[in-house]
Amino acid sequence: MELKKGSMLYFAEVDYKNLQLLLNHTEGLEDAVLVRCEQCVEKYMKVLLKEKLGEINTSHNLSVILNKLLALYPELSQYKALCRFLKDCYYDRNYETEGYYELDDQEFRESVDETLELIANLRSKCIE
Fold first, then answer.
1. Domains and CATH numbers, the chain
2. What pLDDT was estimated at residue 17?
3. Do the Cβ atoms of 78 and 68 come closer than 8 Å?
4. C-alpha distance from residue 56 to each of 40, 52, 60, 65, 94 (Å)
5. N or C terminus: which one in the chain shows less Cβ crowding within 10 Å?
6. How many C-beta atoms surround the C-beta of residue 116 within 10 A?
7. Are 85 and 79 in contact (CB under 8 A)?
């Protein structure tokens, strides 16, 4: 897949690079890391929707996007709960809501590790 500047894959890769930088300096930036995780997942999923299903999706609901991809990639079903969590993180960490809650260090690390696993899975499908 060609990396054209301004394409969704380009934006996904830029978000991924930003995430890599944030991961080296997470203290005090945990919310930013979780938001960037959500953005990476969303953009890579949208690349797959466009390239594999011909759909340009404007939704920001990872669960909805994931459900569309499951027909092609049923193994992604293991990430359903993570996608719901990341969607909530995006809103709870960008806008004042009553749903905001802090993760302890272990919860944060586990969430990030699982997200990085999903991102690697999606990236490999996008760049194959």
1. 8-127 (1.20.120)
2. 95
3. no
4. 16, 11, 12, 11, 24
5. C
6. 16
7. no
Residue 37, burial from CB neighbour count under 10 angstroms (0-12, 13-18, 19+): buried
Work out the average pLDDT over 20-27. Answer: 91
Write the pLDDT tens digit of every residue in 57-97.
888 899 999 999 999 999 999 999 999 999 998 888 878 88
Q: What is the DSSP string of the chain?
A: ----TTSHHHHHHHHHHHHHHHHTS-TT-HHHHHHHHHHHHHHHHHHHHHHHH--------HHHHHHHHTTT-GGGGGGHHHHHHHHHHHHHTTS--TT--PPPHHHHHHHHHHHHHHHHHHHHHHH-
Instruction: Return the closest-CA partner of residue 78 out of 122, 23, 108.
Output: 122
